[in-house]
Fold Diaminobutyrate--2-oxoglutarate transaminase.
Amino acid sequence: MTIEGADGRRYLDCLSGAGTLALGHNHPVVLEAIRKVLDSGAPLHVLDLATPVKDAFTTELFRTLPPGLADHARVRFCGPAGTDAVEAAFKLVRTATGRGGLLTFTGAYHGMITGACAASSNAADVHLPHPQDHRCPFGVADARGAELAARWTESVLDDPKPGVPHPAGMILEPIQGEGGVIPAPDAWLRRMRQLTADRSIPLIVDEIQTGVGRTGAFWAVEHSGVTPDVMVLSKAIGGSLPLAVVVYHEDLDAWEPGAHAGTFRGNQLAMAAGTATLAYVRENGLAERARHLGARMLTELRALAAEFTCVGDVRGRGLMIGVELVDPEEGPTPKQHPEPAQDPTRTEATRGARPPAPELAAAVQRECLRRGLIVELGGRHNSVVRLLPPLTISDEQAAAVLDRLTDAVHTAAQSHTETRPRR
């Protein structure tokens, strides 16, 4: 987890290559796997040829998959980035169903090439509301917001004249990462699975950032018990090297050989590093470790939210954590349909969240860096400080992360208050 800069300073890395480094930088088992391939004289790039390295990776991957999918799965190697896997998944479901449209969700992020961008929050075919408590689009909190979001989706699918053709598939993230670390409620995920299954709509789950133990389960869909039709995988499955695959149910295997390819789909070093990473996470119970340590970190960070009014929300699952910064001087945004004041269930989320504070979040990020802590920003307004530490993080390192982040928030909030112009 520790890296050294050119100036000799040491940093705790809570970005981890956007979640790519499940075991941190240069873990011995990853380096050993790479050296073994190099020393063997095996070809480094094999396109679609079967090799012992590829067989080992596929075997280990299938060992970790949700049983309902693994027992009926096919795998397709793509180009080296997750966005390539997303493109392949879209092509797959369109070929299998003979339909063209896709259902996606507000706040989604599925990559940077054209098709993946179209499925992200800026230009999707059909955009559906994604549930969240802190900034619920329906002005309610908890399960009520998720229920309204599910009803909206159901109405779009069942309306005889919605202006939406029957879709080729639905794609979602179990936890929206770039969208601000927003976990999808388990009950809502199960509802989306039921809605799509009842209407013969393939469900694509994007596990590019949430997979390989990150959220406290090996795959984030396991929290809800959902078995998707398609999973798109990248980042940590390559053990720090570029690798992307699509795993899909055999019933969808309607495309011709070569229908989707990528020049670097046969990266043997990445497959070896990925096999070592998958096996290490599985054999050492790192997903369970992420679940327990992440829960403790979330508890401590929520205490931080109680101390600082500039911390509007703390959320996440496992070692995928977001801290949303808000303007402490501004009042909550009023909801269109506020609930009665006497409602005992009324919370900050139902009253309305304070305005996001992207400049304050950037200041917290800078202060973290000064203290030797690397964090990332995300969210709709770039106001969420994101923590994605390696799954190998120790208790001592976790404590140091929380101490440095707390100190950074304190300094940034104090400076923000002092420099804010008087009205």
User: Anything to note?
Assistant: Confidence is low (pLDDT under 50) at residues 334-351. Residues 4 and 10 are 4 Å apart (CA to CA). The radius of gyration is 22 Å.
